[in-house]
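Supplementary Methods, section 5.1.

A reviewer requested that the exact input to the structure prediction be made available. We therefore reproduce it here, unchanged from the version used in the analyses.
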Amino acid sequence: MRPSKRAPDVLRPVSLERAVARYAEGSCFVKFGNTHVLCTASLEEKPPAWLRGQGRGWVTAEYSMLPRATLERTRRESNSGKVSGRTHEIQRLIGRSLRTIVDLPALGERQITVDCDVIQADGGTRTASITGAWVALHDCIAWMQARSMVKTNPLKDHIAAVSCGIYNGTPVLDLDYAEDSEAETDANFVLTGSGGIVEIQGTAEKTPFSEDELMQLLALAKSGCARLVDLQKTAVA
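The structure derived from this sequence is encoded token-by-token as follows.
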């Protein structure tokens, strides 16, 4: 039995609330159970310096966790003078995941930055961030379209992410912290709405997992991401 009493293939309760940040061109407050993330998309009328003059735009992301997002207070990284390796890794994952479903030349020479700030953490903060970031990005692009800033829609597909793992010998979907901290295998899957695989991160925490178990986790992830994409479609309808 899972600590949450969920069946192996059941997501936590997921919600996607749009337009929660007054000044951002796009925003979404995403909840995966007790993991809550505020995603905001900000438009700049210029690309990064290294991309100027190339006729295309850029999408990037930043990620942070508030000091009391966890059981004990963590020090703000801005006060420590450096960003942790974990933060770097997660924000790069979010950024490159979003770029796979954006037509960058169609953006023009502009940059969209999606900030993902974890308000409360209970496992799966990176996957919740990617799922909510898509909604914020969608609304930012819709804001641009409403002002005739782009000729064609740069958004090519949906993208969502979910964690899967092996807990007490059973492949399960969408791990919360109680499972994540005890799982034999922990994996994150980033998939497009059309079913394409963007990234798989998988780690055996205790004992190696088999190819068959990996395919079981992938099947769970495909089912979970399909449901998340349906929620995205409902949210932006």
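Residues 107 and 150 are 6 Å apart (CA to CA). These observations are discussed further in the main text.
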